[in-house]
Amino acid sequence: MLNRLKENFFFAVIRGKSAEDAIEITKHAILGGIRNIEITYTTPNASDVIKKLSDDFKENQEVIIGAGTVMSLELAKEAIQAGASFLVSPHFDKEIADLANQEQVYYFPGCATATEVVTAMKSSCPIIKLFPGGILGPGFIKDIHGPIPEVDLMPSGGVSIDNVADWKKAGAVAVGVGSALSSKVEVEGYDSVTEIAKAFVKAVQ
């Protein structure tokens, strides 16, 4: 599954205004070619959304459903019970890392310094989320890969159609794409999510 997550490259970071909104954004992102789905716990009834999507895409080996903005051990347990295959948080949490290892799900914590990156690596986090990506920039990956070439890094926050190729060129194994995906929903409807997803995919091909 870790190889598939990397092959898919894009993580859709879904912050729905409602459970229904999150499900619609997800389905249209998948139609556009983004298959790693991160349902954030800022979405109302996020666990219900994770469970429904996990059930709906159970037969589809390419689509992988996980949880984002996992801020506590309790939320991590809830997400795993709902069927999340991976957990993402904006910070590193040793308790969440230990639970993920115990339950055999992936934990991708947010880090912004070399010390944080190494700490997360010691807890067997297979991909480290760089957050906030917009502040760190693609050059941060090159700097980290100097002394620590083996670490897999995924920026989230500040990734756009215009700079996603720069992130990949710098050595990102994946990228998180958030508000950009749903930025036109209110005016153009959910089909806009599909078109934006396609534009992201095309930008790195």
TrEMBL record:
* Species per Swiss-Prot/TrEMBL record: Streptococcus didelphis
Pathway noted in the entry: Carbohydrate acid metabolism
**Keyword Nucleus applies:** no
Which Enzyme Commission number(s) are on file for it? Answer: 4.1.2.14, 4.1.3.16
Name the InterPro entries on file: Aldlse_KDPG_KHG, Aldolase_TIM
How does the record describe its quaternary structure?
A: Homotrimer.
Q: Which Pfam families match?
A: Aldolase
Q: Which family does it belong to?
A: Belongs to the KHG/KDPG aldolase family.
Per UniProt, the keywords (alphabetical) are: Carbohydrate metabolism, Lyase
Write out the GO MF terms: (R,S)-4-hydroxy-2-oxoglutarate aldolase activity; 2-dehydro-3-deoxy-phosphogluconate aldolase activity
Q: What is the name of the protein in this document?
A: Bifunctional 2-keto-4-hydroxyglutarate aldolase/2-keto-3-deoxy-6-phosphogluconate aldolase
